[in-house]
């Protein structure tokens, strides 16, 4: 018997390390919302834009209006709304890292666009304090919070703070999560998933309310003409779940990222897939009007 030993595989000179030279830095967008996925060919940035425009479209924004965007992330929603509707946008975010990044991105915009923006660091439940940093008037025609109000501790405090900074008959519009009226969270499996979901989404249990309770909180804070527009879960949670799976597959194919990135995408896909297939949380666009004095 003759044993043949293959020659050692020669070490590649370059490999694919030069992929770093081909990355577009910084990325053109830093979106971070669930998105509105009209079909499976929709890319992440487009889905995020569609969700923002679906909310902004409820407001009736006119050129020159003043809008407050609370929980704006890294600035993409502020940039989009101010440019699309030719309005003045003030943004507030509680995350210092995202605020610094959004400021750098804003500084890189043309002066004509930059002059429409004011990006502040502060809390959604302490708008009075956050808006003291702004030299302009702190009363707005519109206030929005897109895919972030369920984080606020508490959401009711945000409603009241927002009401204090809206003009009479000004509008509040949000993309938020509302508990289904017929939700069944009595089984051990559903209760366990609820706890995991709340931990993963940083969602205070007190913010898990149905539409009737949500409406009551808005009315108590001084809003009327309240509207709820339910979105198909598959076009929000389902689309995001499928996108996470695609990203995981592409990262594995191109040998990008590490095990933590893969775990993040796997967990995200699982949680949003479950939300798409169970009647637990309803993705919803909510519009309300600030009641004038005496209403």
What is the percentage of strand-forming residues?
15-25%
> Which structural class fits the helix and strand makeup?
alpha/beta
Q: What is the CATH T-level topology of the domain at 39-179 and 204-231 and 280-290?
A: Rossmann fold
Oligomer: single chain
Number of strands: 7
CATH superfamily of the domain at 39-179 and 204-231 and 280-290: Vaccinia Virus protein VP39
Q: Low-confidence runs (pLDDT<50, min 5 residues)?
A: none
CATH architecture of the domain at 39-179 and 204-231 and 280-290: 3-Layer(aba) Sandwich
For the biggest sheet, the summary is: 7 strands, mixed
> What would CATH call the class of the domain at 39-179 and 204-231 and 280-290?
Alpha Beta
Could you spell the SSE succession in H and E letters?
HHEHEHHEHEHEHHEHHE
Q: Average pLDDT value?
A: 91
General form: globular
> Largest sheet, order of strands side by side?
3-2-1-4-5-7-6
Question: How are the secondary structure elements laid out?
Answer:
Elements: H1 19-22, H2 44-56, E1 66-70, H3 76-85, E2 88-93, H4 96-107, H5 111-114, E3 117-121, H6 127-131, E4 140-146, H7 155-164, E5 166-179, H8 188-201, H9 211-220, E6 223-230, H10 233-253, H11 259-277, E7 281-290
Parallel strand pairs: 1-2, 1-4, 2-3, 4-5
Antiparallel strand pairs: 5-7, 6-7
Report on the architecture of this protein:
Pfam families: CMAS. It catalyses: N-methylethanolamine phosphate + S-adenosyl-L-methionine = N,N-dimethylethanolamine phosphate + S-adenosyl-L-homocysteine + H(+); N,N-dimethylethanolamine phosphate + S-adenosyl-L-methionine = phosphocholine + S-adenosyl-L-homocysteine + H(+). Pathway: Lipid metabolism; Phospholipid metabolism; phosphatidylcholine biosynthesis. This is phosphoethanolamine N-methyltransferase. With 295 residues, this protein is of the alpha/beta class. The protein is 41% helix and 19% strand. It is built from eleven helices and seven strands. It has a seven-stranded mixed beta sheet, with helices on both faces. The chain is globular, with a radius of gyration of 22 Å. The mean pLDDT is 91.
